[in-house]
Amino acid sequence: MAQSASPTPAHVRLHKVIGQARTEFVPSLIVLNARGANLAEGTFTLTAVATNSILFTD
Q1: Residue 30 and residue 55 in contact, taking contact as beta carbons nearer than 8 Å
Q2: From which domain of life does this come (predicted)?
Q3: Residue boundaries of the structural domains of the chain
Q4: Which residues does 52 contact at the CB level (< 8 Å), separation at least 6?
């Protein structure tokens, strides 16, 4: 009994609202990590971008 696997419960999406939307300007810095970058014809392209980012704000 102790070694039998229990069935995985179905995923239930939670509907949450975190904070409220604001229309004011907030100075911020977002840090994105990527393996490479390219600047061609006025377009800056990041390649292999990490799935997380860091946000700094006052």
Answers
A1: yes
A2: Bacteria
A3: 28-57
A4: none
* 6-30 residue pLDDT tens: 677 777 777 777 787 778 888 999 9
- What does the block give as tokens for 21? 């939307």
Question: From CA 53, how far away is CA 3, in angstroms rounded?
Answer: 39
Q: Taking the complete model, does pTM exceed 0.85, yes or no?
A: no
State the DSSP string of 3-44. TSPPPPPPP-------S----S---EEEEEEEEEEEEETTEE
Which positions ≥6 away from 39 have C-beta within 8 Å? 45
